[in-house]
Amino acid sequence: MKVLRSSIVTLQIVPPDHRRGYPICDLWNPPPAILLSVSPDLVPIFQHEYRALRPRAPMPPFHVRFRRFTSLNTTIRLRQGEIFVSLSDLLEGAPESVLHSIAHILVAKLYRKPVAAGHNLRYRRFASSSAVTRQTELIRHARGTKRYFGPEGRYFHLEEVFDSLNTRFFGGLLGRPDLTWSEQNAKRSLGHYDAAHNTIVVSRVFDRPSSPRYAIEYLLYHEMLHLKHPIKSRGLRRCIHSAEFKADESRFPQLSEALAFIKRL
Ligand SMILES: [Zn+2]
C-alpha cells in the first residue's frame, strides 16, 4: 500500500516569467481585487472531487484559503492526514465549474491519479481567458514590476535618505538593499519591499519638489521595517505587519503628517 504522509503539489496559473517578485506590502491603496482569506464554500467542492477520485478512502479534513499577494501559484499539501489548499488570488471569482476542475486536478495530482480530460480542458480554457489575463496584469501591477531605475531621482536620492534613516532609527545596522524609484508615478503601490530581489521600490510620485522629505522618509522607513521584521508564517497565514512592526512604525516622528500627505496624493 502506498502511504503519502507529506506531499505537496503546485499548480501554476501563469507562465514562470510572470511569477517573479512581488511586494510584501502595498501601502495605503490596496488594489481593487480584494481577496478572501478563508473560503468555507470551497471545502464542499474539494470534498466532492476527493470522493469522486477516492470513493472508499476516509475523507480527510480540508483547509482551503485564498492567498493574497503571496504567490500566483495554487498549492495543495497533505500534512499529517489533513489537506491544505492555498488558492492563488487569480482564482477569486472563478466560476464554480472551474473551481471543481481545479479541485479535481489538485487532488488527482496529490494522489498521483490521472487527471480527467474534461477537467483539464475546462481549467486550461479558464487560465488562458481574457479575464484571468486582466487579473494577472492587475496583480502584477499591484506587486510592482521588477525593472530597476536606480535610487537617484530628480529631487531625492533614495540612498541618501536610506542612510540618514539608518543612522537615526537603526543605529546604522541595516544592510542597504537595492533602492529604486518606480518606473511610473504609481499611486496604487507607493512603496514595497521585494524580499525575493532584496529591493525597495518607491513610487516616483514622491520625487517632486512639492514632496515633503518626511513623506519619503516615512515611506522608506516603513519598508525598512520590513527588513527589520521579516515575515513570520502563522500556519498558512502570513503575518505582514506584526505588532512589533506597528510599534516601531509609530515611533516615526511625523507619522500623522506623512499619512495626511499620502492621503492627499
Ligand atoms: Zn508594509
Description of the structure:
- The protein is of the alpha/beta class and about 260 residues long.
- It contains 8 helices and 9 strands.
- A 4-stranded mixed beta sheet has the order 1-3-4-2, with helices on one face.
- Helix 1 crosses helix 2 (about 95-110) and helix 5 packs across helix 6.
- Residues about 1-5, about 15-40 and about 235 have low confidence and may be disordered.
- Zinc ion binds near residues 25, 222, 226 and 241.
Helix content: 25-40%
SS strand fraction: 15-25%
| Physical arrangement of strands within the biggest beta sheet | 1-3-4-2
The count of β-strands is: 9
Bound molecules: zinc ion
Supply the helix-strand structural class.
alpha/beta
From the N-terminal CA to the C-terminal CA, the straight-line distance is: 62 Å
Rg, rounded, reads 22 Å
Q: Averaged pLDDT, please?
A: 77
One letter per element, helices H and strands E, the order comes to: EHEEEHHHHEEEHEEHH
